[in-house]
Design brief:
Layout: H1 3-12, E1 16-20, H2 25-36, E2 40-44, H3 48-62, E3 66-68, H4 78-85, E4 93-98, H5 113-141, E5 144-149, H6 162-182, E6 187-192, H7 201-205, H8 218-231, E7 235-236, H9 240-249, H10 254-265
Parallel strand pairs: 1-2, 1-4, 2-3, 4-5, 5-6, 6-7
Helix pairs in contact: 1-8, 2-3, 2-8, 4-5, 5-6
The structure holds NADP nicotinamide-adenine-dinucleotide phosphate.
NADP nicotinamide-adenine-dinucleotide phosphate binds next to helix 2 and helix 7.
Length: 270
């Protein structure tokens, strides 16, 4: 067993973890890594058929217990439904992984207003609501882990993905603030901040051309994120170049950085 596997196993074995956005990409990879560590899984996303297949496979492969709760997190009633289906039935969620989210690329003023509103709800509203529901139970038990998947997009404005980047800075600040608030209860909170990662994200957001090459695998991102969470890191950038860029940007005027980003992201004519 590698040192990393032992770390995850010691922290997670036998605990129930709720993973949002578990039907694809980073969420699926997080579920798989949690299963490797022996955690039992509550899996949620909208695509029930995928959740059923994933749950069956992980149960067979890792000998864990699973439960699926399909839900649309743009629906403000969904977090309560997830809480009722878990803590409400006596299933203690000791690891909460707020991963579900999506992006939207294009000129803000021309973009689909309803899609942007739903993005804020899924990326931010549902994260606040779920965390507010599950955290007090963790505080009573004086243990727990909460991950909020943010992004390297949370370290600077991203023109033409302005709303998305704003949701992700919200996520990172929420995680970093809560990490301080609940440390005294033995609860670890971490913001996972991936850069461009292999998943369905870019196709859905419409960003394929900007990030065609050099994406990190979802497995690497998930593994590094979970290691950071159990070690008590308040934020994790899962690749070296991303850490370097974020560090460099601290010493540059913000307007210069957002101007550079505008040049990279500006939609091509035609
Ligand atoms: N990929 C990247 O380059 C990258 C970089 C930085 C941060 N991130 C962040 O990583 C997280 C995961 O994204 P990903 O890259 O893994 O993308 P992905 O492959 O598109 O997966 C997104 C997941 O979120 C779920 N989801 C989307 N809308 C939902 C809704 N309304 N209700 C419930 N679940 C919903 C999807 O499931 P259903 O469609 O089945 O509902 C899916 O499981 C997101 O928060 C994203 O912002 C991604």
């Amino acid at each position: 067993m590698t040192q990393s596997s032992k770390l995850l196993r010691d922290a997670l074995h036998g605990k129930w973890a709720l993973v949002t956005g578990a039907s694809a990409g980073i969420g699926l990879a997080l579920a798989e890594q949690l299963a490797t560590g022996g955690a039992n899984l509550v899996l949620t996303a909208r695509r029930q058929d995928r959740l059923e297949a994933i749950a069956l496979r992980l149960q067979g492969q890792y000998g864990i217990e699973t439960k699926i709760v399909p839900a649309d997190l743009a629906d403000t009633a969904a977090p309560e439904q997830l809480f009722a289906a878990t803590e409400g039935t006596g299933l203690a969620v000791e690891v909460l992984i707020n991963n579900a989210g999506f992006g939207y690329y294009g000129r803000f003023a021309e973009g689909d207003a309803e899609r942007q509103r739903r993005m804020v709800e899924v990326n931010c509203g549902a994260v606040v609501h779920l965390t507010r529901l599950f955290l007090p139970r963790m505080m009573e038990r004086r243990r727990g882990h909460v991950m909020i998947v943010a992004s390297t997009a949370s370290y600077q404005p991203v023109p033409y993905m302005s709303t998305y980047a704003a949701t992700k800075v919200f996520d990172r600040f929420l995680a970093e603030g809560l990490a301080q608030e609940v440390a005294e209860y033995g609860i670890k909170v971490s913001a996972l901040c991936p850069g461009p990662t292999e998943s369905e994200f870019h196709e859905i957001a419409g960003t394929r051309s900007q990030f065609g090459k050099g994406r990190q695998s979802a497995e690497q991102v998930a593994r590094r994120g979970l290691e950071g969470l159990v070690r008590g890191e308040h934020w994790v950038i899962p690749y070296g170049a991303g850490k370097g860029i974020v560090l460099m940007e601290r010493f540059l005027p913000r307007r210069f950085v957002s101007g550079m980003a505008a040049r990279v992201f500006r939609p091509k004519a035609g």
